[in-house]
Design goal:
Length: about 300
């Protein structure tokens, strides 16, 4: 299988591209600089520049490009960059796929934030998108950017990803020092559900879908059992051998987290129903297993 990937230098992209190569697939990487290797191709989604022959010859095009989610939520430039880096790259690739006449499928990154706050309700791929929080709005525009490809019959798969737990990446990389100092804290009431997935399960699920020619539409990439924030806090404190007795009041979080406060205090009890229906097996099904894998 010939895969063209944007975002291959990012945390998820680097791990997925390495796994694809190990599985015997050919991977070409779209990069925003002069190419340094034979498997790299320069592109600029903001000026609509890319090698259209490369796109036309691909079996699968993957977009995992996007500015880091961690940043200053009070910064308008951070918010604009976070959105534009996702929407613009997706739109550029979707339009290229719509016009090159190739046969490639489009696997477009996205987030579980698309579903919005559902309280304690179970959220599956069939659930609606609710609310107008910052990340939900961004995720809707992100998904809508695949429309040029969809409208011309391209097979599109949306990867609605939960926060990926690994000690080398946010958010766990930022939380570990605090929890090791005994400063881990429940956020607000702690009853809100917090979806998550281990890195190895995310890579395994993404690879499963990439190798499935009948996959289409949205897929949730998250652990089958979603903890509450309080359960996550207790599990992480236990994993590092400390206790977490603190709580961050919701009123303070609404000020401190700015436009991301609805994501911090909202609740998404997600289930990767379509992956489970396909028979895909998750190695880390609950919060303790996810954190054990992340910290190993």
């Amino acid at each position: 299988m010939h895969v063209v990937m944007a975002g291959s230098s990012g945390f998820l992209g680097s791990h997925l591209s390495a796994e694809l190569v190990r599985a015997g697939h050919e991977v070409n990487r779209l990069v925003r600089r002069p190419p340094h290797r034979d498997d790299e191709s320069t592109w600029d989604p903001y000026t609509d520049h890319l090698d259209r022959d490369l796109i036309a010859g691909a079996d699968v095009v993957v977009n995992l490009a996007g500015a880091p989610t961690m940043g200053n939520p009070h910064s308008a430039s951070w918010a604009r960059k976070l959105k534009d880096s996702r929407v613009t790259t997706t739109d550029c690739l979707a339009r290229a796929l719509a016009t090159t006449g190739g046969h490639a499928a489009f696997y477009a990154g996205n987030a579980v934030g698309w579903y919005g706050d559902h309280g304690g309700e179970l959220v599956t791929e069939e659930s609606e998108s609710r609310g107008d929080s910052f990340m939900t709005t961004v995720s809707r525009e992100w998904a809508d950017a695949t429309r040029p490809a969809l409208d011309t019959g391209v097979r599109v798969v949306r990867l609605h990803t939960a926060p990926v737990m690994d000690r080398q990446a946010a958010p766990l990389k930022q939380l570990l020092p605090l929890f090791k100092l005994g400063l881990g804290a429940r956020l607000g009431a702690g009853t809100q559900h917090f979806p998550l997935v281990s890195l190895r399960d995310w890579v395994g699920a993404a690879l499963h879908l990439l190798q499935s020619p009948d996959a289409e539409g949205p897929y949730i990439l998250a652990a089958p059992s979603t903890p509450t924030n309080a359960e996550f806090t207790d599990a992480l404190a236990e994993a590092v051998g400390r206790r977490a007795r603190l709580a961050a009041p919701a009123e303070i979080l609404r000020v401190a987290a700015g436009r991301l406060a609805p994501e911090v205090l909202g609740s998404q009890r997600v289930e990767p129903a379509r992956l489970l229906a396909r028979g895909h097996v998750f190695r880390d099904e609950d919060v303790r297993a996810v954190l054990a894998a992340a910290l190993s």
